[in-house]
Every structure is written in structure tokens, then in C-alpha cells.
Amino acid sequence: MSMGTALRMIFLVVFIGWLMVWVLLPTTIYTQAWTPKLNCKLNSTYFGEQGTNLLLFSFPMMFIAALGCVYLHVQQESKKINSKSVVKSHRLAFSKRPLLVMAPLGIVTAMELAFAFMFIALLIWSLFNYIHYYTFNHPFVHKAGEKLWQTRLRSVSFILGYVGNICWAFLFFPVSRGSSILPLAGLTSESSIKYHIWLGHLSMILFAAHTIGFIIYWGTTHQMAEMLEWRKDWVPNVAGEIAFVFAMGMWVTSFPRVRRKMFEVFFYTHHLYGFYIFFYVLHVGAAYFCMILPGIYLFFVDRFLRFLQSRRRARLVSARILPCDTVELNFSKSPGLIYNPTSMLFLNVPSISKLQWHPFTITSSNMEPDRLSIVIKSEGSWSQKLYQELSSSVDYLNVSVEGPYGPTSSHFLRHESLVMVSGGSGITPFISIIREIIFRSQSEELDVPRVLLICAFKNVADLTMLNLLLPISDTHTQISKMQLQIEAYVTRENEQTFTDSQKHLQTIWFKSDPFDSPISAALGPNNWLWLGAIISSSFVMFLLILGIFTRYYIFPIEQETYEPYHFTLRALWDIFLVCTCIFIASSAIFLWCKKQYAKEYERILNLEAPTPPTSPWSQFYVADRELESLPHQSLVQATKVHFGAKPDLKEILPRCEGSDIGVLVCGPRTMRHEVAKICSSGLADNLHFESISFNW
What we know:
The strands form five sheets. This protein has a six-stranded parallel sheet, with helices on both faces. A five-stranded antiparallel sheet has the order 8-5-4-13-15, with helices on one face. The longest helix has 35 residues, at 527-561. The protein is globular and about 85 Å long. It has helices spanning 3-24, 28-42, 51-81, 110-137, 148-171, 181-184, 193-220, 237-252, 256-261, 263-269, 273-291, 293-310, 381-391, 428-441, 495-500, 527-561, 567-596, 598-605, 624-627, 630-637, 649-652, 669-680; strands at 98-102, 106-109, 313-314, 316-322, 326-332, 344-348, 358-361, 371-377, 400-405, 417-423, 450-457, 484-490, 506-509, 516-517, 621-622, 639-643, 661-666, 687-691. Helix content is 50%, strand content 13%. It starts with a helix and ends in a 5-residue tail after the last strand. It has 696 residues and is α/β, with parallel strands linked by helices. Belongs to the ferric reductase (FRE) family. Keywords: Electron transport, Ion transport, Iron, Membrane, Metal-binding, Oxidoreductase, Transmembrane, Transmembrane helix, Transport.
């Protein structure tokens, strides 16, 4: 058994054990058998009532996250050594086949549906077991003057809050972009953002029922003063109400109709999550905070590292302006930076907005030695301002980035053939895949898949996006060595428009700045290893400080007053210690890595950049020689343009020849759903759907 297999088995065993704790939590096995024994050993003067929850709920996932970083580092290093080998495995292929395609949920695979049913079963199991426990084993006290239905309403509302905590335990894993948890499951934050949305809706429904239930109970029992109560020894109701107000603001603006029409409202409102978490923890207390701690902890680590990375200004080398209101930005990158096709980069341009960050697909191949490219289509207000700024006389642009984030493997290479279907700017993920295959095809030792690109554009000018299939840095790439066929469809214009509106690409070269740095991982080439060091060291530091603080500060106060320590203050101390330990460990390791690789970054920036022509229009020049080069001739020969029609996917896809065809789609929802339905229909067993879009 290899080390990788052994580690995967450890991860699986620990994760299943962690899930079993959640399953047994509402049962008498946990409350009457486990808890008393563990309380004697763990609820000591060093950890108080948090000891049991830290061991059973926090430690397993933190262990997986830290050890998972080591596993991903070893996997990454082995790929460097065996870069020419591609594992062609089709295990669990059925589990990735679309099983449910519908507008509210999007494209749902068999595996996703199975896990969704299991999670719903966990919630229902917990709900009924809590009801059973609080009905027969530990019933709620029937207060004087209180009717039976009011007592039951109070107990059910209380239980709904408990069940909502289960959703919170998973809520932050999908949005931790640089965490090791998602790659271990073969996911990325972009592909799993829908899980965050599902969990968010589910938790808000439960918490809304929890809140409304208590308000009805207080109103019918004439106890509305309870809404303003902030107790010293128990749950502060005011904190829960404040948390619910922030949560409602985030929830209402996150619905698709609001988010798409008023994205900036959604974007800024969603940054209230900090206040939501703060008051939520004050409401549930330190003990329950430890139950949901892993997801929040890893999210905080990831968010702070993203903040540190974004403080560096990225070296923007050049930009290619296309006549279709599209621009390609080319950055300098560190040689140690590793990413895979379809990865994402988050971009911030302070001259347009200091707060807004927008994700864009990386279009360059990791095999391009010193360049990283992204493509931006001018569609929203932010991208339109960027396009206008680049189209003006600008010789420098201040840019910050976060990332790259994406898959840890080039899984698409395992197929014999690839069919890629795109609509409009949805072609950008496929540019990176085709560039990767072009570079791999230069080596005769590698087998690369045949590629059929079916792309639909509204206007003739959009056809110029096909020029981006070839990198700006290497015009000698032999595209003819790969089997590429492009079927381009122009839906709203005819061939006459094509002959009347031919325009050339324009290239801008930017000045360098001594404060710029090439794009690199937040913690350098050994990013996974250092991330594991941050997670493990900060969590151990948190446990040590928490134990010492509880033993020598909280415990003496409780002994002296014969009362439990202040409920809210204990939660505040936990929040403070978590943030402090993450800040210390992350800052120290980030500064150490920055110092270690400073000389390498300086050497890259001192490399001689291409010199633009010295004419009055030196910032702009037409790349005629690029259009006349051999690679572009091969690209034109591989392309067939259809005017005034949309691709008939129901006819094209089943006709594709080959025993193993990977089908990828990126574009409008109707296009994605149509392709998913064709692949799941069973009419063509050789079609294997590959979901890459987070716009589900």
C-alpha cells in the first residue's frame, strides 16, 4: 500500500468517525454513555465544558485539514517528477453523470444527490431524536400558566436551532478557496459554491422557524421582554436576534433575481458575514462554537491569507485588446507557481473600485514559463470601466490578485477525445485547456486527446476570441501537432458582416514598477506544506492558550463566586483567541516565505521585457505578423464558421465518434442544461459529462 493510499484511508476513517459523532449527538448513547465519561477527563479545569466538543467535533476535521496539506504537497511534488504521465481512470464515472437537471437546483450528479439525501436524512434523524429526547428523557419544564401547545412550541423552536447548527458545521467549507478539505474530496470552491448556497438556504429556513417560533411563544405568553434579555448565565436572546437580522439581509439579497440585477448590493451585503458569525457565536456560546469551529477556523485562515496576498501589487506585463470588447491581461508569474486549466484568479483594480474583487478564468497554460493570462469580457459596469481605461492612453495599471484557485489535477486529459461546448465568454475555460494540450502535444512521448470545440457567439467580432487560443509569448507553437476542430457559430450576423468588420488585435505593453511582484501562491512554491504548518501551529497554540487561560483565570473566578463564568465573556474569549492565534501563525509564516522568495521575485522582474515600437503610438501596435504566422494559419484551417444559426447539440453530440469522450460545457444556463440532459439520456454511453462551471 502506497503512502497516498494509506493517507486517504486515514482521512476516510476520521471523517466517517466525525460524521458518526453528529449522528449520535441527539441520542442517549451520546448524552448518557459518552458524555459523562468524557466529561470526567476532558471537562477539567483546563478546558471546562468545551473539552468534549473540542475532542469530538473540532480535532478530527483540523487533523484532516493539516494532514491533508501534507498529502497534497506530496501529490504535487510527485506530479513534478512524473509530469509526463497521465492516469486514465474511469472509476466512479457513473457517479459523475448528471441525474437531475432542473432550474432551481441546476445540474446534480448521482453522487451529489446521494450525499444530499444522506444530509437531509441526518437533519431529519437529528430533529426526531431531539424531539424524543426532550419529550421523554429530559422534558421541558411546564411553566405555570403555560398551555401545553406553548410548551411544545418552545421545545420545537429550541430543537430547530440545534438542527440549524448542523448546517453551520458544513457551511464554510465550500467557500474556503485555498483550504485542503475541498481538494481532498476532488472539489474546488467554484464547483462547490452551490453546496454553500444549499446549506445557506437550509440553515436560514431552520433559523427563521427557530426565531419566529420563539417570538410567537413570547407573544402568546406575554413575555416579549425576553426579546431584550441578555442573561449572564445563559443564551443571550438579543445576540441571536441581531445575528438573525444580519443573516436576513444576506439571505434576501442572495436570491438569483436580486443577485443578478443588483450584484453590488449582494456583494457588499454578503460582507456582513463577520457580524453574523460574531453575534451567532455570542448567542450559542463557547461549547457550541467548538462544535462548528473547524469550518469557521479554516475559513478565517484562508481569508486572512487572501488578505495578505492581496496587499502585493501584481506585475501586469501587457494587454491584448480585442474588437469584441474583450481584453486579455498578461501577468508575470513565479516559476514555482503551479495551477491547472480552468483555475480562477480574483482581480482587484483600485482605480475602478478598491473593494470589488472579480473572478476570472486563467487562460494560460501552466507550461508557459513566465506568463499568466486572464480574459475579461466587457459585460458589467466594472468590466466596462476596465476596458475603457485600457483603451485610453495608459502605460501602467495598479492591480492586485488573489489565487490562483482551481482543481489539483488535469482530469480532462484522461479522455481519448474532448468535446467542448461554449457560449459567448464561456469559451475562456476552454482556452486554458486547449493551450495546455497544445504545449503537451509538442512532446512526442505524450498522448493528448482529440478536441472538438463548438462555440457560439452573437456577433462576428466575437470570433476574434479564437486568436486567444495561441499565447502571446510563443508564436512558434506548432498547433498542427494536435487534432483540433473548431465549429464556430455566429447567431445574429451574416457572412457579409464578417467581411465588412475585420479588425486587428491591439497590444499594450505596460511599464514596470519596483513595488510590483510576479504572481505566486500566497506562501510560495511549498504553499500546501506551509498552509499545513499554519493550521497545525495555530490550532495547537489556541488549545494551549485556552487551557492555560481557563485554568488560571476562569477557574479561580468560578471557585471564588460559586457561579459559572459569564456566558458571553467566555464566547468572546474564544473568538479573540481563535483570531489572535490565526493572526500570529499566518503572519509569521507569510513574512518568512516572503523573505525567502524575495530574491527570486526580484530576478524575475529584472528580466528584459519585450520592447514595443518607438513611435508616437508606441503603446499600441497591430499584431499583423501574428495573424500571418504559421500557428494562426493552422488555427484558421481548423476553424469552420456557421452564420445565422445555433449549434444543434442534440444532433452533434450523439454523432461524436470514440469510445471515451469527455464533454465540457460553459455558457448560458439553457446551454449547460441541454448538454447535461443529452449526456444523461443514455443515448450515447461514450459521452462523459464534466462539470466545470460554478454558474450552475
